[in-house]
């Protein structure tokens, strides 16, 4: 068998075997699994056992993996958090660019490099690749303020590094003239406008018409990613900048824990990112480290400057903004890895004659050391942040279980999407519980039960795309509402999500006989929904808060869930309060997580809400009414008429949210007598 391997099947098979075995080996050694492919690349690469050549195939797959890293970084960036911490990201970006740049230029001049070579040499140190981001993402701390600071600063840092590269390239080739500057400025500006302004509009239009076709949506995302990367080449930037900008452009349309995001992560982490790490390891040549005393000195100095400058920038930013020790070390871990931009700058400098082979070898050492150190710091100290975050929500007394009654196959996916979001809001590991109630005699329901199970099988396939477990339920009962109530009791359900078509029967019915039945006989948290647009196209969440709802038990829990929904959808949030003191609502909102700003506004009357606010609702708005069951402190007669009025106005997206009630009502003193749940006249509620 010829060595290095030439047969594509053998090359790919060996690579996949490495991706399987080396992470397991790294786990046994208690080393971050992400390091495995790098070490494998050193062993089997052209400078090791020469089993594999770093040919065009390896370079292609590695480049795709690198683009995926930057793309996912942009997708998972908390834009609201970035807005809150914008100044921090700018400060960190400037520090982590300028400090390594200055130290690198000084070191380059000490090594007798020319001015241009020394500046480009400093640019090598200034850029970084957040190679540990997959570990951060896996640990679930991607929206931590320190992580947001680094990822926001990465865009500034790498953009400046690529601009420096473009300028020095022009100077080295004698093209540094007025025309060059005009082209660079105009092309870069147009590129940013196209990616950040046009792409979101195109994406919103596409998702509205994609009918939740997973393959089509995934291919659309890939097209955006690689077209943005390709265009960046013509602008004079590295493709990683285009990939990161594409991730930012699609950020709010691919929400976390959804099927599409899971497909992107799975494709990247299972195949392409390991190929990138393998290709990095294949660049290493251990034999060049001891060729001379100058080589040894250079090999020692360059990593010290590269690592020390990034450590100083992270430490300084963390101190300025009061970050914890673990957060500062995570910042260092994310910003210390040199791979993408570093390789690009080094190879361009070598091609232009600005760098010699000795610098190339020393830079490879930087890549190897920092690609090990960065993910290690992220894995180790990111885990501490994740554990600290989990400890803050471990005071739950009941397992959070979400029941989703399924009646209409056309609304199944939208209900599951909302279930994914609520599940993430409650941070529960429990599966979702899709339910089908068969209206049939128990002894004659075999065929109908089998048909119901077949309908529910689609929910299993859809939920598996989001990596969410489900437990299918079927109940046989002539009364669908009672069947739902029984399932909720038997499975210890805490949240029920049900769809509503906007129709009701009978004069006093709120939603219709079925929903009204289990609404009256259940105490669990209940979300009655009409959602006609994909959740990832929602731009604004409008909360309607009736008078006295702030005093209701479960209000803080409800606000927390609604804020989390808005956060996951990257939507702005507005709270409309009917005749109440706004200070109480703002105080409660500030006390619950997540840290999402709600703009509260007081409304004089229900009629004012209908005329001045509902008429201005857009198709990209989600209206959430925080309602109340009869007989509770916040109940108002208007709450029973409200759903019909909203439905009659053809709003595309709204949820009527009923908070959790006490499990049992204390009926002492009224045995044998049925007491109405409300005794007041309508005018009494308006006093």
UniProtKB/TrEMBL annotation:
The keyword Cytoplasm does not apply. It is found in: Membrane. Residues 401-522 form the UspA domain. The keyword Transmembrane helix applies. Its main location: membrane. Keywords: Antiport, Ion transport, Membrane, Transmembrane, Transmembrane helix, Transport. PANTHER family: NA(+)_H(+) ANTIPORTER NHAS5, NAPA-TYPE SODIUM/HYDROGEN ANTIPORTER. GO terms for biological process: proton transmembrane transport. It is a multi-pass membrane protein. Residues 17-374 form the Cation/H+ exchanger transmembrane domain. The chain crosses the membrane at residues 9-27, 33-53, 60-77, 97-125, 146-168, 180-199, 220-246, 266-284, 296-318, 330-352, 359-377. Gene3D superfamilies: 1.20.1530.20, HUPs. This is Cation:proton antiporter. GO terms for molecular function: antiporter activity. InterPro entries: Cation/H_exchanger_TM, Na+/solute_symporter_sf, Rossmann-like_a/b/a_fold, UspA. It comes from Neobacillus citreus.
């Amino acid at each position: 068998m010829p060595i290095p391997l030439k047969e594509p099947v053998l090359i790919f098979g060996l690579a996949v075997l490495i991706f399987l075995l080396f992470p397991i080996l790294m786990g046994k050694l208690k080393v971050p699994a992400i390091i495995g492919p790098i070490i494998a690349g050193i062993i089997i690469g052209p400078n090791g056992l020469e089993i594999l050549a770093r040919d065009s195939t390896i370079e292609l797959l590695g480049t795709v993996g690198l683009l995926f890293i930057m793309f996912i970084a942009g997708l998972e960036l908390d834009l609201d958090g970035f807005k809150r911490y914008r100044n921090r990201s700018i400060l960190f970006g400037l520090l982590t660019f300028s400090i390594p740049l200055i130290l690198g230029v000084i070191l380059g001049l000490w090594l007798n490099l020319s001015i241009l070579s020394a500046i480009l040499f400093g640019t090598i140190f200034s850029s970084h690749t957040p190679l540990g981001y997959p570990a951060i993402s896996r640990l679930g701390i991607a929206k931590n303020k320190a992580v947001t600071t680094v990822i926001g600063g990465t865009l500034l840092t790498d953009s400046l590094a690529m601009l420096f590269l473009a300028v020095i390239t022009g100077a080295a080739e004698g093209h540094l003239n007025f025309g060059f500057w005009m082209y660079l400025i105009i092309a870069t500006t147009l590129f940013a406008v196209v990616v950040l302004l046009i792409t979101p509009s195109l994406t919103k239009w596409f998702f509205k018409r994609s009918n939740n076709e997973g393959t089509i949506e995934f291919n659309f995302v890939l097209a955006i990613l690689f077209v943005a990367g390709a265009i960046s080449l013509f602008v004079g930037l590295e493709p990683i900048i285009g990939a990161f900008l594409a991730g930012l452009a699609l950020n709010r349309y691919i929400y976390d824990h959804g099927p599409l995001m899971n497909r992107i992560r799975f494709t990247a982490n299972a195949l392409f990112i390991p190929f990138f790490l393998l290709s990095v390891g294949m660049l290493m040549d251990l034999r060049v480290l001891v060729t001379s005393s100058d080589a040894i000195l250079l090999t020692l100095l360059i990593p010290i400057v590269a690592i020390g400058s990034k450590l100083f920038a992270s430490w300084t930013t963390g101190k300025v903004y009061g970050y914890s020790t673990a957060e500062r070390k995570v910042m260092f871990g994310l910003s210390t890895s040199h791979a993408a931009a570093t390789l690009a700058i080094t190879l361009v400098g070598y091609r232009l004659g600005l760098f010699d082979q000795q610098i190339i070898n020393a830079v490879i050492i930087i890549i190897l050391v920092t690609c090990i150190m960065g993910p290690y710091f992220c894995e180790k100290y990111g885990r501490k942040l994740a554990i600290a975050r989990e400890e803050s929500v471990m005071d739950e007394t009941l397992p959070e279980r979400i029941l989703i009654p399924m009646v209409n196959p056309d609304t199944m996916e939208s209900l599951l999407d909302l279930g994914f979001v609520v599940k993430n809001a409650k941070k529960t590991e429990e599966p979702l519980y899709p339910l089908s109630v068969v209206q049939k005699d128990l002894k004659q329901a075999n065929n109908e039960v089998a048909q119901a199970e077949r309908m529910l099988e689609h929910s299993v396939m859809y939920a598996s795309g989001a990596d969410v477990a489900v437990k299918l339920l079927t109940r046989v009962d002539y009364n669908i509402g009672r069947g739902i109530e029984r399932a909720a009791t038997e499975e210890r359900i805490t949240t029920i999500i049900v769809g509503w078509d906007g129709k009701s029967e009978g004069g006093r019915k709120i939603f219709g006989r079925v929903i009204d039945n289990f609404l009256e006989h259940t105490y669990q948290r209940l979300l009655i929904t009409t959602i006609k647009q994909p959740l990832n196209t929602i731009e604004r969440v409008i909360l309607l808060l009736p008078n006295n709802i702030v005093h209701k038990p479960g209000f803080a829990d409800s606000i927390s869930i609604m804020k989390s929904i808005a956060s996951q959808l990257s939507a702005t949030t507005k709270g409309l309060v009917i005749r109440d003191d706004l200070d109480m609502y703002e105080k409660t909102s500030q006390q619950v997580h997540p840290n999402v700003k709600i703009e509260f506004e007081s409304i004089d009357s229900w009629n004012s809400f209908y005329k001045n606010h509902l008429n201005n609702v857009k198709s990209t708005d989600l209206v959430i009414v925080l309602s109340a069951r009869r007989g509770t402190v916040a109940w108002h007669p208007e709450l029973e008429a409200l759903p019909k009025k909203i439905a009659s106005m053809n709003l595309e997206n709204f949820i009527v949210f009923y908070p959790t009630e006490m499990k049992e009502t204390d009926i002492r003193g009224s045995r044998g007598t049925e007491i109405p749940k409300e005794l007041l006249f309508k005018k009494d509620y308006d006093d």
